[in-house]
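Q: Can someone sanity-check these two? First one:
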Amino acid sequence: MTSIRRRTLTLIIGLLLAGLAVLSVFNVHDSNHEIAEVYDAQLAQNARLLQGVMRMPLAGQQHADLYRAFNAALGEAVPHGDGHPYERKIAFQVWDPAGNVLVHTASAPSFATPPGIPGFSDVVDLNNRHWRAFMLQDQDNGLRIWVGERDDVRADLVDRIVRHTLWPNVIGSLLLAAMVWFAIGWGLKPLADMAATLRARHSGSLEPLQLVPLPSELEPMQAALNRMLAQIQEVLGRERRFIADAAHEMRTPLAVLRVHAQNLQEAGTEAQRLESLAFLIAGVDRTSRLVNQLLTMARLEPKPGASAMPSIDLGETVRNSLVQLAPWLLSKNLELAFEETEHSIQVSSSRAAIEIALGNLITNAANFSPDNGVITVKLEQAEGFCHLSVEDQGPGIDEADRERLFERFYSRGNAQGAGLGLTIVNTIATQLGGRITLVNRAEGGLRATLSIPSQS
């Protein structure tokens, strides 16, 4: 894409030249019309003056002497003498009633017969030259006075007027284009300064821009850049926290795995070897769960510019998820019960988010449930919220630990846990505009409830 300056200048100069062309066309048309009017008036005026001279009350011989003197004076006009160069392009002729030429100029055209139509006319002489003429008939004296002017005189004058008008316009347009070029450059200087400031910044610098003074047109751009820098800082901060948390949490499991591997290597008996191998497998399983939980946390981090979540049937999503979890619960000697409303419940969420949250709640319940215990999942709707509850028959929680249960890597009473389950559920609840609550049941156990806004 071309630069803003070039695009703006191209548009302005294009409009300027188009306007100049239109004005030039009108100037040529108006010049032709006005010059024709002026010259026609001069032709008529010259004819009237010549008529006045021809009407002088003289005797017959005096009239003849006047005609000879008149012709001699008109014949003295030369193209490059003291007169005007256009002088020989204007002609006069006077005929008497018998058709005899009384007065004529040397440049006058030759006619086979005198023109008979009075007024203005365009005629062509015997030499194929075009004339603009005015014929005046003197009824009192029976004279016909013809005054003509060659068309090339008028064309030459129009050309001179157009040249004298057009060239200043062209030169003025070029000067104006140069002035507009520098004016646009001056107007865009704050934008160039902003670009130079951005280029001069270090590649790792994410501090907000503080350009002053700043035109009002660039303030939204600076605000947008600062928002983008803040989002980048937030994303990088989340990544750094994730890396730090992962490194912190992976250090101990890896060290434990190394110890178990060394014990396996140094086992003296088969029983010690099997015991060390069991510990090693359990450590690998715990490390795998920790990695999966960390990856889940990374997936749940909000993404800048994320699109709106779709509408889903919450009951159908929960049922499908429970079908997948039921065999695992049966393998742990646990029963699963599901209670839901009769009508459909619509929420704005992704199916993956609901499945992850429900899976973590049921996993926590299974970890603290006794053998042959029952885990109950309930789906209710009240006051504009959908309530997805998971109830177990475990020992419940201490009130002092309630807030800490949502902290990352805090695991209460579960040596195999990674301490991220409830943190993940709380993150999902926050993203969906809801909340997670933990309540001890009166009959024993814990009720964990995920409440999110409903659409119905």
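And here is the second, same format, sequence then tokens:
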Amino acid sequence: MEPVYLFNLIDRHKSWLSTRHSLVAQNVANANTPGYKAMDTLPFARVMERSALDMAGADPMHMRPSPGEAMAAAAKPAEGWETTFSGNTVSPEQEMIKVSEIRGAFTLATNLQRSFHNMWMSAVRT
């Protein structure tokens, strides 16, 4: 039987969503802090590209993580809609849109994981 990497992918996506949610919460908490620059994560597709495995080692079958894997969920300055006179780049409206996107993506990932798990269990029982 082949290993199933879908569960690992979903877990990585949920971890990325948690990181993004923490940054959004940090942005909202600092919405009135003078000079604060809003932060966001790299898109998940870029995270996956950065964390791809490269073939390396003494044996061609050995694999090691790429150097970018440690920076997979690195924060970057967010492109804000506005900058206030105090230099703050947090837009509460934009942050609430991000929260909605995160919630939808997390719900989708959870439902996909549940459905795949149910399908897997049905296949094992037969």
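A (reply): Looked at the second one. Residues 66-72 have pLDDT under 50 and may be disordered. DSSP finds three helices and four strands in the chain.
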